[in-house]
Amino acid sequence: xxxxxxxxISIIFILLAIGYLILSYQxxxxxFVPVDSDFVPKVLGFLLIALSIILxxxxxPKEQEEKKSNISRxxxxxxxxxxxxxxxxxxxLEIIGFVIVSMLxxxxxxxxxxxxxxxxxxxxxxxxxxxxxxxxxxxxxINLPSGILPF
Length: 151
Prior knowledge:
Layout: H1 5-24, H2 39-58, H3 61-66, H4 73-96, H5 98-112, H6 118-139
Helix pairs in contact: 1-2, 4-5, 5-6
């Protein structure tokens, strides 16, 4: 039954989604809001369960045995670099702030993944976090960490 890696991964995702849903049902309700804070986590949890079930039934163990996936050293280095960037991003978000950390993350991640146009990369990595910061802080009134920036 669990011969392919996809089936094993789908079971792990289902268990993670169940734990995620249990925690999302424990979020406190807020009065006077049309959509409560637990809506999106619940939708994401049920979506993860549905997609995991689809993955479980779409996997073919015979096909999996025929094609063994070989990851090159270059791809493995890129994967480890992006993972380290994500961990660094999470660690420095509160300290340095959303705008600066996001700029550095977007620029270095897209550079490492092969996009070498420096000007476009710099413009996008500057405008995207600044625009998101403005939308969240001033239009939606959801405070993102400003960190070392004075605003």
